[in-house]
Design a protein that fits this description.
CATH architecture: Sandwich
Strand order of the largest sheet: 1-2-9-4-7
CATH topology: Jelly Rolls
Helix content: under 10%
CATH class: Mainly Beta
Radius of gyration: 14 Å
CATH superfamily: Jelly Rolls
Number of domains: 1
């Protein structure tokens, strides 16, 4: 989704996605040539297998708790916590309970 140059009404990020049993649901909120913002809703136990992205990343936990594994170290993140990753850093995400996360990619 390419974001147009327009002012949009305020968002309540936690309300932008609904949980789906056993799944990770995603929604792109914003995107332009410099980066993007994506929301993810994890059901308890859902995970994203080890992967990396070609841009710098900030992950912010909106609600719930996740386990974030990067460079063989596990980080416990809960609502209000964030983590920063350089481009091409392999990581895994596991939802310890239902969780909503905002992913900010910067090119």
């Amino acid at each position: 989704m390419k974001t147009q140059e327009e002012i949009k009404p305020p968002l309540r990020l936690a309300d932008e996605l609904k949980y789906v049993d056993g799944e990770v649901v995603t929604r792109d909120v914003f995107s332009n040539d410099n980066g993007s913002v994506r929301l993810l809703a994890f059901d308890k136990g859902a995970m994203l297998a080890r992967h990396s992205v070609d841009s710098d990343v900030m992950v912010y936990v909106i609600e719930g708790q996740i386990e974030f594994e990067v460079e063989d170290q596990r980080q416990h993140l809960e609502a209000g916590n964030s983590i920063l990753l350089p481009a091409n850093t392999a990581h895994t995400v596991l939802a310890l309970d239902k969780a909503k996360v905002m992913l900010i990619r910067i090119k």
